[in-house]
Every structure is written in structure tokens, then in C-alpha cells.
Amino acid sequence: MNHLLTQCDVNEIIVPICFLMYQSRRDPARIGLVHICTFVLLKLSGERSFGVNLNKPFKTKLPCDMPLFSGSHSDLISITLHKLVVNGAYKLVPLYSCFITIICNISPYWKSMSLVSAVKLVNLFELFSSPKFLYSGESAHRHLALLLE
Fold first, then answer.
1. What sign for the dihedral angle of Cα 105, 39, 60, 56?
2. In angstroms, rounded to a whole number, what is the distance separating the alpha carbons of residues 107 and 13?
3. Contact, 28 vs 42, CB < 8 A?
4. Does pTM top 0.85 for this prediction?
5. 32-48 per-position pLDDT tens digit
6. Could you read off the pLDDT of 90-114 as tens digits, one per residue?
């Protein structure tokens, strides 16, 4: 892990991970792939050097219907995770706390946020603070607390 974070450009790994997560969000046969990608991002997001490297500009055009934005790789991660929550399969609900933890882990190193990413984060706040979501489960309020953190 240390070699990956210090010697390699982790952004070259993040783009395919986000693309795979984005493409697999609705396919029940590929939910396991989303789980693996989530845990890889969760592990990487705990490292300071990873968070700092995410500030490099994102200039790649992905072959999917992801919204156009000009920003960093942190924006790419937040937009991807937003799409997984809003438009993902129901089987991804157990990963919501992991998604928000990833955002919390990278947020201290996030230098500038794109408008699209900011709107997506506000949208997540609205979703997690809605009565329908808060009453959906015993621990649903934790998602909101993590997002505010």
C-alpha cells in the first residue's frame, strides 16, 4: 500500500474504480464488484497522501452518462458516490455509511469543490435528512451525522 501511495499515481486507479462502480450500480450480477471497489476506496481514503493526490485536475472523459464537470478527482469520487446512492440498486443500501465515510476521509484534503459536486453533496444531505429516509431504519440518522461531519 505504501508503494502504491508514494510511487504511483493513484488517480490512474481511481478513474477506473469510479467508472466500474458507476457502470455496475444497477446490475445485480455486478453488485459484488461495487462492494470490492467501495472497500478499496475506503482503505485508500484513510491515507493522507491519497487525499492530497486527489486534488489533481480531472480531465478524462468517461464513456458514460456522468455529468460534465471541471474539477478534481475528489469531485469524481463524490459524484460517483452520489449516483450510487440516488440511482443505485437497493442492495447498495448497506454501503451508504462506507460511501459517506469515504467522503469524510477525503474532505480535509479537498482544496476546491466543483459546482456539480457541491450540488450533489447538498442533494445527499436533503435525501438523508428527509423523514422518509430517517424513519426507514434504526440507524438511518447515522448517515446524516456522518455527512455533517
1. positive
2. 19
3. no
4. yes
5. 999 999 999 999 999 99
6. 899 899 999 999 999 999 999 999 9
